[in-house]
């Protein structure tokens, strides 16, 4: 076995061991936290006033902007239940400074003020807006990106079309701050959507725009200086880009109407298979607008003939503020760990995870995890009945760093051999053994499809045999094991079910790296645990 493979396996095993201890609630049944959490700090009256000024009629269809109507007509798309693996992308102006993380705009006016001044100049001379001309995407090749995504084994791609910084990566008619009018002078997302769909993948959009209204909060001395100079944050021609100089109720109304306009433009331009929103829409006072967008989107999808879904964090589309009671939306958990399910959660859900560290957007010190780490996290998520949503971090020039490409391609090669144990599967009675903090020994994750049980053994190739303890003979498992094979290997394997577990003899060589999969036939399996509304059983 090569040293490279040994290192990859060791990191994969360490990844599972390093996860935080499970929270008290294994299904992560939480919801909205106190505070605004990136939402515009406004009131229901302001939102209702904005909603009343929107003249766009709802398309014909069964969905009305009420909880009752959304609940009655929404169903989780079958393709999403089958997919199990998708990609997101954080790409934007923040990739130009490539420092710390994708919240550079927020930090450059506060704790990174000295660093920014040293590298680019003080904000009155070089503000965040000045990164637009440096964001050229001159090496962006949507066909190459889409081909990489296809080879990764992902079944859908939902890039961030607008982050907290308010810059739109599409050819927009409702905001001048877009990639066609400025910077690259290209419809980046339009080109990418076409290339992705040409390869048979689903295309979604991730919109963080609601966070922009109060994203920037400079210290008083800097704000006073910029105000006196009518510079940057207080330059009138950039007022609608920053949304800092005026945060009155009237300004918030205008912002919310534009947020609606951008969403409708995205829905109409891209006919997205997924519409993903970040934290900022979780506040209940935003419900009138959220309900209206959902009704618009779902009615339009009927006309397109597409099965689509909204995806959100926390409990944005749950009037009870519980993420186990969402309406017309699939819950997304950020990162494997204390905020995501530590056990099996039935229904439909996602885990959003980075391909490397330390950020979501590209930074000069971002390093991709080796494939074994990503494969381990994919298997862990799917075994708990979730869908793994992996984020990529391209550079400002439009290239995806080679280490990220290498990891993606290796995951794709693994799925070429073992995808049967991932796509279209659901959880078993237990999600696995091992993989907790500090645990040593075998690390296994189980999935089910039809009458087959899959055991994904992560991060090791033991000598001789493997013992799967959850399949011990005395346990009340219906049926009798008739056949055990390994995905990617040609022959049946010898096995014996004993009181301490199912002992399986290994072939001479592993069919793939980082993890291998047993397929076990003969036992009676539990039925799928997806639900029509996505909520846990």
Q: What keyword list fits this structure?
A:
537 residues; alpha/beta; TIM Barrel; 5-stranded antiparallel sheet; 14 helices
Determine the strand fraction and express it as a percent band: 15-25%
Q: Give the structural class.
A: alpha/beta
Rg over CA atoms: 24 Å
Mean pLDDT: 93
Number of strands: 19
Report strand order across the widest sheet.
1-2-4-5-6-7-8-11
Gap from first CA to last CA: 44 Å
Percent helix among the residues? 25-40%
What does this protein look like?
The protein has 537 residues and is an alpha/beta fold. 29% of the residues lie in helices and 17% in strands. It contains 14 helices and 19 strands. It has an 8-stranded parallel barrel with strand order 1-2-4-5-6-7-8-11. The longest helix is centred in the middle third of the chain and has 22 residues, at 249-270. It is globular and about 80 Å long.
């Amino acid at each position: 076995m090569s040293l490279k493979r040994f290192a990859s396996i060791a990191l994969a095993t360490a990844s599972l061991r390093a996860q935080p201890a499970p929270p008290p609630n294994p299904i992560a049944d939480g919801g909205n936290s106190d505070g605004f959490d990136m939402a515009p700090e406004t009131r229901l009256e302001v939102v209702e006033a904005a909603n009343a000024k929107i003249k766009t009629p709802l398309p014909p269809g069964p969905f009305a902007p009420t909880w009752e109507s959304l609940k009655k007509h929404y169903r989780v798309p079958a393709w999403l239940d089958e997919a199990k693996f998708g990609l997101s992308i954080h790409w934007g102006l923040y990739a130009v400074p490539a420092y710390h993380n994708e919240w550079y705009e927020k930090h450059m006016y506060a704790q990174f003020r000295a660093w920014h001044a040293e590298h680019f100049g003080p904000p009155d001379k070089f503000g965040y807006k000045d990164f637009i001309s440096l964001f050229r995407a001159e090496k962006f090749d949507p066909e190459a990106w889409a081909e990489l995504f296809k080879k990764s084994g992902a079944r859908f791609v939902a890039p961030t079309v607008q982050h907290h910084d308010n810059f739109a990566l599409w050819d927009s008619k409702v905001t001048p701050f877009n990639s066609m009018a400025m910077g690259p002078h290209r419809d980046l997302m339009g080109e990418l959507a076409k290339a992705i769909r040409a390869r048979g993948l689903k295309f979604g959009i991730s919109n963080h725009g609601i966070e922009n209204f109060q994203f920037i909060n400079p210290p008083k001395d800097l704000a006073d200086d910029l105000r006196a100079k009518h510079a940057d944050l207080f330059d009138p021609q950039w007022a609608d880009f920053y949304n800092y100089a005026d945060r009155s109720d009237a300004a918030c109304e205008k912002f919310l109407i534009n947020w609606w306009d951008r969403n409708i433009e995205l829905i109409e331009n891209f006919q997205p298979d997924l519409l993903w929103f970040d934290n900022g829409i979780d506040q209940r006072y935003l419900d009138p607008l959220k309900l209206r967008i959902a009704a618009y989107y779902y009615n339009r999808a009927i006309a397109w003939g597409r099965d689509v879904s909204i995806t959100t964090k926390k409990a944005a589309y749950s009037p009870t503020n519980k993420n186990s009671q969402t309406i017309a939306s699939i819950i997304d958990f950020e990162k494997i760990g204390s905020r995501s399910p530590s056990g099996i959660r039935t229904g439909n859900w996602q885990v959003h995870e980075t391909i490397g560290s330390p950020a979501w957007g590209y930074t000069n010190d971002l390093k991709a995890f080796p494939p074994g780490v990503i494969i381990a996290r994919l298997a862990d998520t799917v075994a708990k009945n979730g869908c793994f949503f992996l984020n990529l971090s391209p550079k400002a020039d439009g290239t995806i760093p080679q280490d990220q490409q290498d990891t993606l391609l290796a995951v794709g090669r693994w799925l070429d051999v073992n995808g049967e144990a991932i796509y279209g599967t659901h959880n078993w009675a237990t999600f696995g053994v091992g993989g907790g903090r500090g645990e040593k020994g075998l690390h296994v994750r189980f999935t089910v499809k039809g009458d087959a049980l899959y055991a994904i053994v992560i991060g090791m190739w033991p000598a001789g045999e493997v013992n799967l303890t959850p399949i011990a003979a005395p346990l009340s498992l219906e049926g009798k094991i008739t056949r055990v094979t390994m995905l990617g290997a040609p022959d049946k394997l010898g096995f014996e079910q004993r009181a301490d577990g199912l002992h399986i003899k290994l072939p001479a060589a592993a069919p793939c790296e980082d993890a291998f999969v047993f397929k076990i036939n003969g036992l009676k399996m539990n039925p799928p645990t997806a639900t029509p509304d996505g909520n846990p059983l």
